[in-house]
Design a protein that fits this description.
This protein has about 450 residues and is of the alpha+beta class. It has helices at about 5-10, 55-60, 120-135, 150-155, 155-160, 190-195, 225-235, 310-315, 395-405, 425-430, 435-445, and strands spanning about 15, 25, 30-35, 75, 80, 100-105, 110-115, 140-145, 165-170, 180-185, 205-210, 235-240, 245-250, 255-265, 270, 280-285, 290-300, 325-335, 340-345, 350-355, 360-365, 370-375, 380-385, 390. Strands 13, 14, 15, 16, 17, 18, 19, 20, 21, 22 and 23 form an 11-stranded antiparallel sheet that branches. A 5-stranded parallel sheet has the order 9-8-7-10-11, with helices on both faces. Strands 3-6-12-24 form a 4-stranded antiparallel sheet, covered by helices on one side. A hairpin with a 5-residue loop joins β1 (about 15) and β2. The longest helix is centred in the first third of the chain and has 13 residues, at about 120-135. The N and C termini lie far apart (about 90 Å).
Length: about 450
């Protein structure tokens, strides 16, 4: 593994190296395992009669892997041309088929996130927590507000493990370096909440479908013991769901631009007109270049994971979460030709009010933390190096297309009848005449 691959592996599991070379441990035991697919070994060159050894670089160039992306491009073009190395590069495209989870030591701490205000989740929550503590000897963290649930207090099984639970409060307690594993019970909102809790490296997330939609929660709870055990003891397929780094720069008359908000979002950041009766009028910049001005109800900047959320409702395409990209979707644009666009994941988007905007705009992050964007303020959006490692129930392909079919009813329609089923109709339509129909009526009478 060369230096760039090592840096990528460390970034994917949250190993952050500062300028002095000190390593900060972000995710305790989760690690992405890179699975290498080697070509069939050949000792002699088969393309010529020289009989020499095949050059190792050429063999690597011909290597193909099972991937959602095209094979990695060759970095050299002809005798002289090559891609210039960029020391500022923060991420590269990883083969999605190589994204596998393994543990270099057994996980000890688990965070259980359950859907709030839903009585149907209480029984599975108690079963899971009791099993993790009694059978797996794990330290279980839950949110402090869970302990105040009156229905849980009346559960006798919960009382036996209540004192062994560790609690935290969102916004007050730092979970960094404390959690090895996350289990979500509920709908897609539980996974979004887990993403917001960890604003740097995220532990592996296993999401059980106990909500109303469940697009991001592929696991069923019926046999949770076997499924959790398989993940804890073996390897599991991962979908590294990219997140957006969103920074709001506030205009200060004395200090200039000052960062006020710095968040990682899993689905999307939305800029809209809020309660204003006027159209939003915002400028969109791509790597510092003005691309267009948006006039309409607003703009959605989403990850591939978020493409199947607000973006698809606004007319965007659906993008597999392993595709490295950022989607820009207008909300009710005042132009028939303004269509959603997909830009590379490495670019930086800047969004700010146009000089002739009639009102301010509102910004929200994954549906939370709504703020006002005023004249002179700007929103900077780019892809973060800290993805959400979502554990697959089957694999990256099956999970996503099953969710499209089951949750969004993608391409669901009645099947067209086979010609054999229509044979009676085709035969009668060619032979029936008015006289024959009259004769059949007389016989029947």
């Amino acid at each position: 593994m060369n230096e760039s691959d090592l840096s990528l592996a460390k970034a994917m599991v949250g190993m952050e190296i500062n300028s002095t070379g000190t390593t900060h441990r972000k995710s305790v035991v989760g690690r992405v395992q890179e699975k290498v697919f080697s070509p069939t070994p050949r000792n002699k060159c088969e393309t010529c009669s020289c009989g020499g050894e095949m050059d190792q670089q050429k063999a690597q160039d011909r290597r193909r892997t099972r991937s959602l992306n095209a094979p990695s491009p060759v970095q050299q073009f002809g005798p002289c041309g090559r891609i210039m190395k960029n020391s500022a590069m923060v991420m590269t495209i990883q083969d999605p088929a190589s994204q596998r989870l393994t543990w270099y030591k057994p996980p000890l701490t688990v965070l259980v996130i359950k859907k709030v205000r839903d009585a149907s989740v209480l029984s599975p929550f108690v079963q899971l927590v009791h099993w993790l503590i009694k059978e797996k000897n794990m330290v279980v963290f839950v949110e402090h507000s869970v302990m105040d649930d009156s229905m849980l207090q009346a559960n006798s099984s919960f009382q036996t493990v209540k004192d062994k639970l560790m609690t935290f409060q969102d916004g007050k307690d730092d979970l960094t370096d404390k959690i090895d594993f996350i289990i979500c019970l509920g709908g897609d909102g539980t996974l979004l909440y887990a993403s917001l809790l960890f604003q740097q490296s995220v532990p592996p997330v296993m999401a059980f479908h106990l909500g109303s939609l469940g697009f991001l929660t592929p696991f069923e709870f019926e046999n949770f013991q076997d499924q959790v055990t398989n993940v804890l003891e073996g390897y599991a397929a991962l979908t590294l769901r990219s997140r957006l780094r969103c920074i709001i720069m506030r205009k200060d008359e004395e200090k200039g631009l000052v960062p006020s908000t710095n968040l990682l979002v899993l689905n999307e950041v939305v800029i809209d007109r809020g309660p204003s009766p006027y159209l939003s009028n915002i400028d969109l910049f791509l790597d510092g270049k003005h691309i267009t001005s948006v006039q309409g109800d607003g703009l959605i900047v989403s990850t591939p994971t978020g493409s199947t959320a607000y973006a698809v409702a606004a007319g965007a395409s659906m993008i597999h979460p392993s595709v490295p990209a950022i989607m820009v979707t207008p909300i009710c644009p005042h132009s028939l030709s303004f269509r959603p666009i997909v830009v590379p994941a490495g670019v930086e988007l800047k969004i700010m009010l146009s000089n002739d905007a009639r009102s301010t705009a509102c910004v929200s992050f994954d549906g939370r933390y709504q703020q006002e964007l005023r004249q002179g303020d700007s929103l900077r959006v780019t892809t973060s190096i800290y993805p959400v490692p979502s554990i697959c129930a089957q694999d990256q392909i099956s999970d996503w297309f099953d969710s499209l079919a089951e949750c969004l009813h993608w391409n669901v329609r009645k099947r067209q009848k086979h010609l054999d089923e229509l044979s009676d109709l085709t035969q009668s339509s060619s032979n029936d005449t008015l006289d024959s129909l009259e004769q059949s009526e007389q016989i029947d009478s």
